[in-house]
Specification:
Elements lengths: L2 E5 L19 E2 L4 E5 L5 E11 L4 E10 L7 E9 L3 E11 L5 E19 L7 E2 L11 E19 L1 E3 L3 E23 L11 E27 L2 E24 L3 H4 L2 E6 L3 E21 L2 E19 L3 H4 L7 E17 L1
Parallel strand pairs: 1-2
Antiparallel strand pairs: 1-3, 3-11, 4-7, 4-18, 5-6, 5-9, 7-8, 8-10, 10-12, 11-12, 12-13, 13-14, 14-15, 14-16, 16-17, 17-18
């Protein structure tokens, strides 16, 4: 049985009408493009994606000044930041298409860890390196920074497959999404550049941590353009609105890292609060389907993905010292290529 809905091209924006019709009830408007919820058999799909992603977020861990070479005494300040490197992640999903209606249910899980490191040394051995810890008023010789971000995300969605003419398939979906985003930034400072000779060794360090856990509604659409010979171009655009708890804390280690050197710890924790984190993601890919037999097939997909969680990291150290100050947040995002394998079994 097929549910066939004829919509005019000018009325494609009203595709929600398709959901109002029961199987077997054709709906007709003036001449247009046929939009069909095709007949389907019960089919399980198992997907696995290898993600190779880079994050655009960064952590400013130090600054240094350079002295002009013309003898004017002019100095120029340089801010030093550490960025995430390219890292591997994974996404796994399972879905089931119900027989007859082309409706489906899908669950997915994504894990991604982003990290990176950087260092800077006083370039002219004159002005030193500074930030966060001032070593009793004296600048440092060297500073190092590292970042570590971890995403655990899961979705549960329900969708409806629709075909538009002979070449286009649409798959609107909706459901819920969960995300846990952990962020840790570290900075380490070495030596005293004002000492004669300059000293070495760990002088102090700084650490900031942020953790967001939230869940909320998710909606989006997949679109497939069938090119022929089992090749397709696939695009996805989706978003979620997550509500959850935001925690953050900061720590200074004066003299050394306590666990290794017995230094003094100054720790500050911000009050937890309920955060609203919108999320947007998009994919575009080339897909090839190979049929082993009438009931079993495999899809191989190569594409590019962009994901952004807005205001998902708390990094306002001032709030730890001044209650009721304005909270500062930054986005958590990543983008890069991916390879997907999907096994379909009817």
């Amino acid at each position: 049985m097929k549910t066939k809905i004829t919509l005019a091209l000018a009325m494609l924006g009203l595709s929600s009408i398709a959901f109002a019709g029961a199987p077997g009830n054709p709906m007709v408007v003036p001449t247009g493009v046929p939009v069909i919820a095709p007949d389907s058999t019960g089919t399980w799909s198992f997907g696995l994606e290898a993600l190779y992603m880079e994050s655009n977020t960064s952590f400013q861990y130090a600054s240094y000044d350079t002295l002009a070479t013309d003898g004017s005494g002019t100095t120029t300040q340089h801010n030093q930041s550490v960025h995430n490197d390219w890292n591997w992640g994974v996404e796994a999903d399972i879905s089931y298409m119900f027989p007859g209606s082309s409706r489906d249910i899908s669950a997915s899980y994504t894990y991604l860890n982003q990290d990176g490191s950087d260092s800077v040394t006083d370039p002219d051995d004159v002005l030193g390196v500074t930030n966060f810890i001032n070593n009793g008023g004296q600048p440092f010789n060297t500073a190092k920074g590292d970042v570590d971000q971890t995403l655990n995300a899961a979705t549960l969605t329900f969708g409806q497959l629709l075909t538009v003419g002979d070449r286009l398939s649409l798959h609107p979906f909706g459901g819920v999404q969960f995300a846990d985003i952990d962020n840790t930034d570290n900075a380490y400072y070495y030596g005293n550049s004002d000492a004669v000779p300059p000293t070495t060794g760990l002088t102090g360090s700084y650490k900031q941590e942020s953790d967001f856990e939230g869940a909320g509604p998710r909606a989006g659409i997949d679109a497939s353009v069938h090119l022929g010979s089992d090749f397709s171009i696939i695009g996805t655009f989706a978003g979620a609105l997550l509500v959850g708890n935001m925690d953050s804390q900061f720590a200074f280690y004066n003299g050394a890292v306590p666990s290794a050197f017995g230094g003094t710890v100054l720790s500050f924790k911000n009050d937890s609060y309920t955060a609203l984190v919108p999320e947007l993601d998009a994919k575009i890919a080339l897909d090839y389907m190979y049929a082993f037999n009438p009931k079993t097939s495999m899809n191989i997909q190569v594409g590019y993905e962009v994901v952004n969680y807005f205001n998902a990291e708390s990094n306002n150290i001032l709030d730890a010292f001044n209650s009721n100050s304005v909270s500062t947040t930054s986005d958590f995002n990543y983008n890069g290529p991916y390879l997907r394998l999907q096994l379909n079994v009817a």
